[in-house]
Amino acid sequence: MDADGAAGWLIYRLTGSAAAVGVLTVASRGPALVLSSVGGELAQRHDPRRLAIALALLQVVPPALLAVIAWLDPNTELIIYALVLAGGILSSLALAPTTWISSHSLPRS
Asked: At CA 107, angle to CA 105 and CA 109, rounded to 5?
């Protein structure tokens, strides 16, 4: 189960609401609609490999914090939403540099 699935399960357990899980999904996937082009812009301005590595390392932080918060006190719905949103933002920014790396990893022939 990925971090979004775990967060969805936790939100459902806390609220009992499928709508709350839907809002969580929008917080996770919504940033890609707006920020994937920003990630492309960043990949053009900076070294895509370094950018992808930095964003990959940063993507570890929200799920790790989510695990700690769920372990300590799971009654923090707003923090769960914020961490899932942060993970969605980082994931959408990392999409373009990661795609660039995979498309430039093989020779053209």
From this structure: 145
